[in-house]
Design a protein that fits this description.
It is a single chain. The protein has one domain (about 5-180): Alpha-ketoglutarate-dependent dioxygenase AlkB-like (Jelly Rolls, Sandwich), CATH 2.60.120. Helix content is about 15%, strand content about 45%. It contains three helices and 14 strands. The strands form three sheets. It has a seven-stranded antiparallel sheet. The longest helix is centred in the middle third of the chain and has 14 residues, at about 70-85. The protein is globular. InterPro entries: AlkB-like, AlkB-like_sf, ALKBH4, Oxoglu/Fe-dep_dioxygenase_dom.
Amino acid sequence: MRGIHERPAGLTYQPDLVDDDEERCLLATLDALHFHEVRMHGQVARRTVRHFGYDYDYGSFQLTATEALPVALRWVRERCAELAGVDPEVLAQTLVTRYPPDSVIGWHRDAPAFGPTVVGVSLGSACRLRFQRGSGEKRRVYEVELAPRSGYVLSGEARTAWQHSIPPVPALRYSLTFRMLRSPRT
């Protein structure tokens, strides 16, 4: 990646957030889920998703209440909340993403509907999580290898000032992303 390398303030990375046995159980649970296509700007992405707590519409950018996080996934939300230093209940929206081999997610910031802290767990294949902000001579970049079973937190500038992306993954990968809501919902 071209640009000046700078670690985003507010990025936390934790290898081995879950152990091998926990990952196997999580992957079995995720393999059993029904996933939905992601359609953005008329294009269907290779990755597929499942939302819990709140569904997110990629066209209208709206949140609507949906089914609760399954019991089998609540312990990992608690672990992620501990990593982020927040109460598990404030992580009200869960995004489960299934990345088949060679799928990507382009440069973006998590939608404005989501609050100041995003916590993720990477399962299956390793991947690179890339960051960028600015352009030209002011461009700043950073990249971290997300190992299987690792967790990360985006808060502060890592959440608000930097974009992130994932280049093509080499093999099947799942991510669990736990997000706060920007404004309280009832």
